[in-house]
Design goal:
- This protein has 14 helices and 13 strands.
- By secondary structure, the protein is α/β, with parallel strands linked by helices.
- The longest helix has 21 residues.
- It is globular.
């Protein structure tokens, strides 16, 4: 490696995030043990600052509403912050259309961008606020991209003129951070099936609802907990043949309620019809829960079929029901798979591992910049 490439605490990285702070807090804390970290984040997330390492330099900016012209002031502020901080690498961790557009005029070098979702998901109206073309802007402006699964990398390579060497796959780390929001623990409620997260057509909730009669016929103690918000829930209620088996929390789930939902679950189910990756799986693993999910997108990269849960084909109501029943009827199997999930979080999904892989990306882009 070039001797001019900064290493260890001589390397200064600025992280910029707008939304996914549970992920960013965990990543920043792990990175701060290896390099200097400055974190730029909106003022609305000041209450989370106590969860960050004291070694991290925190810098706040005001994030206006998406369509407000005040975003121009935000851009000026962020540019001034970057000029004052003078990082060796800037790492953009989430999409913001205003910043994406600004990078067509000015952009820090080297710039690393994490792409969580390469394309908009089917039916996700929340993503339509940012046109795909605007979402794609950092792809061409970045010296390197980080994605969370091989399928995401393949999608980017198919849609853009990129070298495979331009993209590095780094998994989402485990999300045990959620445990810090509650000191209480709850026992498993036998037979509880948890669907957690935003509710949009691509999440395939209708297939889980359709599987309910077969599941409850085999496991009368089964109950379904649906926790999350998104589209109008009336169409899902209309599908329920036995609504008494469902507990619906159709709302934003406060962070302090997340540990209870996962600890009480017997199995976590992701019946997605398409996906890039999912933070729900590392969250389930952090609580030692097996997962039943469809084999779409990057999910097979993190879910080991028969080890940490079961993979089933998308839109397969029969296969989904059988996999859930198999776990509900096998308490020892659930315990064993949950333990394997925990072991996975302590190895390839540990934040130390994720941070090391990320630092290697930083060193690579600095080396490439120095070689020009």
């Amino acid at each position: 490696m070039d001797t001019n490439v900064q290493q260890g605490k001589d390397l200064h990285v600025v992280l910029i995030d707008f939304y996914f702070f549970e992920y960013t807090i965990s990543l920043a804390n792990a990175l701060a043990t290896q390099v200097q970290i400055s974190l730029l984040m909106p003022t609305e997330f000041k209450p989370l600052a106590g969860m960050l390492s004291p070694e991290i330099k925190l810098v706040y900016f005001t994030k206006p509403r998406l369509r407000s012209p005040a975003n121009l002031r935000m851009l000026v502020h962020i540019r001034e912050l970057l000029e004052n901080l003078r990082p060796d690498v800037t790492h953009l961790l989430s999409v913001n259309p205003w910043l994406n557009l600004a990078f067509t005029i000015w952009h820090p070098v080297p710039l690393v961008t994490t792409i969580h979702d390469p394309v908009m998901h089917a039916g996700d109206r929340s993503q339509r606020k940012i046109p795909q073309g605007v979402r794609d802007l950092p792809i061409s402006r970045s010296q390197h991209l980080i994605v969370h699964g091989q399928s995401v990398k393949d999608t980017l390579l198919a849609r853009h003129t990129l070298s495979p060497d331009h993209i590095t796959v780094v998994p989402i780390g485990e999300l045990s951070l959620y445990k810090q929001w509650s000191e209480q623990s709850w026992p498993e409620q036998e037979g509880t099936i948890l669907f957690f997260g935003r509710i949009w057509p691509y999440k395939g909730l209708d297939y889980l609802i359709a599987a309910e009669p077969a599941i409850t016929a085999a496991c009368p103690q089964a109950r379904f907990v649906i926790a999350g918000q998104g589209e109008d829930f009336d169409r899902y209620r209309a599908m329920m043949k036995h609504p008494e088996y469902f507990e619906v929390l159709n709302e934003y789930i406060p962070r302090e309620d997340v540990p209870r939902l996962f600890q009480q679950a017997s199995v976590v189910v992701l019946p997605y019809i398409e996906a890039s990756q999912s933070a729900v799986i590392p969250l389930a693993y952090a609580f030692g829960k097996p997962v039943v999910a469809t084999a779409v997108g990057g999910i097979p990269d993190v879910l080991e079929d028969g080890v940490t849960g079961y993979l089933v084909p998308p839109r397969d109501v029969h296969g989904l029901a059988n996999a859930v029943v198999r776990l509900l009827q096998d308490r020892e199997g659930r315990r064993r798979m949950g333990q394997k999930a925990l072991e996975k979080t302590r190895n390839e999904m540990s934040w130390d591992t994720v941070a090391q892989q990320t630092v290697e990306v930083y060193q690579m882009v600095i080396h490439q910049a120095n070689a020009r």
